[in-house]
Amino acid sequence: MCTKNVNAIGRKEIVPIRPDDKGTIDDDENDNEYTMSDLIVEGTVLALYTDEENAEFYSLRASSCPEKLRTSEVDDWGVSLKKNTKIIRGQYFKSDLNGSELSYKLIRRKKAIVPEASVIYISPQLRVNSRFALTLPETVHLDLLSVLDGMES
After folding, report:
1. What is the CATH class of 17-152?
2. How confident is the model at residue 142 (pLDDT cuts 50, 70, 90)?
3. Does position 137 have pLDDT exceeding 90, yes or no?
4. Which of 14, 111, 124, 148 maximizes the CB count within 10 A of its CB?
5. Where are the domains of the chain?
């Protein structure tokens, strides 16, 4: 279930993520299990997998809760996604060349649609400032690099 009122915002905690396609969580099961969809709300900053050599990952601010496409769609970047794909709508960030290497600016003019399966990191505590900028804390960057290293192993 996707809500805009998330009590976990502001806390750092490792939570097991259960794939969405295995049904619902029984009342008798551990209450600390979440699906990917439970953790992503409007405004959540995500890191996405990419196999491009010039980028370690892509960053995206979710503009909606995850959903399943009812029809095939093409986003403003020209990416086509098929009907029934679990997706997240949002906007990408680009490196802010005037800031530090961990500074990013939101690309507001183009909307993106990404597969939920491409999410490698969820950071609900990060927020875009009034200038549509984001500075990634060094600890989050190191966490991301650790996730990427684990994927390559």
Report:
1. mainly beta
2. confident
3. no
4. 124
5. 17-152
Residues 6 or more apart in contact with residue 34 via CB below 8 angstroms: 15, 16, 17, 18
Instruction: Evaluate whether 59 touches 44 at the Cβ level (below 8 Å).
Output: no
At CB < 8 A and 24+ separation, what contacts does 55-60 make? Answer: 56/144, 56/145, 56/148, 57/120, 57/121, 57/144, 57/148, 58/92, 58/93, 59/92, 59/93, 59/104, 59/134, 59/136, 60/88, 60/90, 60/91, 60/92, 60/93, 60/112, 60/114
- d(Cα 125, Cα 36) in Å, to the nearest integer? 16
Q: Determine if residue 111 is left, alpha or beta; phi over 0 gives left, psi from -120 to 50 gives alpha, anything else beta.
A: beta
Alpha helices in the chain (DSSP H): 36-39, 138-152
CA distances in angstroms from 122 to 109, 114, 128, listed in the order given:
23, 14, 14
One-letter amino acid for residue 7 of the chain: N
| Pairwise CA distance, residues 122 & 61, whole Å | 10
**C-alpha span between 142 and 35 (Å, rounded):** 24
Is residue 122 a contact partner of residue 40, using CB atoms and an 8 Å limit?
Answer: yes
Taking the model in full, what pTM does it have?
Answer: 0.74
Residue indicated by tokens 């099961």 = 29
